[in-house]
Amino acid sequence: SVKKDARNTYRFHTSDMERGLREQLMMESSLHHALDNGELMIHYQPKVNFSTGAVAGVEALVRWNHPVLGQVPPASFIPIAEENGCIDAIGMWVLEQACAQARKWQELSLPLLCVSVNLSARQFQQPRLAEQVGQVLRDTGLVPSCLELEITESTVMQDTEAAITALQSLKRLGVVLSVDDFGTGYSSLSCLKRFPIDVLKIDRSFVSDVTHDTNDAAITRAIIALAHGLDLAVVAEGVETLEQALFLQANGCDEMQGYYFSRPVLPDELADMLRADPVARNMDAAAGGAAP
Ligand code: C2E
Ligand code: MG
Ligand code: MG
Ligand code: MG
């Protein structure tokens, strides 16, 4: 009967919710030990330069291998880490690992390879951040211009005066600063001009439909024009198809990142990839496809 169906549906939702809540509680209680237990690891996703076809850098993306829940994506546990303060330790660990890893790749004859690290809102607001980043650079011996810090548009726009001060102290270290997920927040263009930033990263949500949706295409072109007008480099994230790559290349995007070139991979896989350089071959194919 309808009533029974309704009750079954209701029961189904309840147990679903209970499971979600149980998982949430499990994550909250075990995140504190994740670092010490060696459950966190970092995958690296290459970024490709359009004009040279070379891997310009890699982005560090943290993962959590939970003993019961399996692979937990950062979108699920970073907000918890922000809430309970674990992000300070996790963030520093990612930064140290990523800088040390970049040095290893550089010694493997990739002297210019850059590494990007994401900063959460709480890390960005931490008054000792620049001091800590400087310390990690000294400890690992990574050249500051080989470290890029990604801060989301919504984070930098939260309190723009404080953001300018924080960005300036990071900039004084000589690191590269980029605004992540650009286009999804509410940027004041006059603020953008005052930020000592180097890169805008076009959010994946625009890129995914760029070849089918004329609005997304228009927004993407506008972001590229805005970035270049402000003398910033522009990177597209979430590039999954050759068509998207060709659109971005034709419209002057500087770098791209996405499954079309590579998913985030473990350090050894990345080293193999850079040695074999399939990414560069992909780029040649893209350039060949674009030629008249
Ligand atoms: P993000 O910084 O914007 O990173 C890009 C996300 O898009 C990554 O998801 C990446 O795996 C995914 N991605 C890349 N290319 C493609 C593509 O072609 N198609 C699709 N569908 N997705 C693609 P991931 O690794 O799950 O990370 C999600 C977010 O979690 C990141 O977004 C970043 O905001 C945050 N995050 C990751 N690692 C860290 C970290 O170490 N610290 C902090 N604070 N946040 C992190
Ligand atoms: Mg990012
Ligand atoms: Mg992003
Ligand atoms: Mg994004």
Characterise the protein shown here.
It is a single chain. The chain contains 13 helices and nine strands. The chain has helices spanning 2-34, 74-84, 87-107, 121-124, 129-140, 153-156, 160-171, 189-194, 204-207, 214-229, 242-250, 267-276, 278-290, and strands at residues 40-49, 55-66, 70-72, 114-119, 147-152, 176-182, 199-202, 233-236, 255-256. Strand 6, helix 8 (189-194) and strand 7 form a beta-alpha-beta unit. One magnesium ion is lined by residues 181, 203-204, 237.
* N to C succession of SSEs: HEEEHHEHHEHHEHEHHEHEHH
The shape, in one word, is globular
Overall mean confidence score, pLDDT: 89
| Unreliable runs | 278-292
Structural class: alpha/beta
Number of helices: 13
Beta-strand fraction estimate:
15-25%
Hetero compounds: ligand C2E, magnesium ion
- Computed CA radius of gyration, to the nearest angstrom: 21 Å
Distance between the termini: 65 Å
Cross-sheet strand order for the largest sheet = 1-2-4-5-6-7-8-9
The level of helicity is 40-55%
- In terms of quaternary structure, the protein is single chain
The beta-strand count equals: 9
Protein name: Diguanylate cyclase (GGDEF) domain-containing protein
Keywords: Membrane, Transmembrane, Transmembrane helix
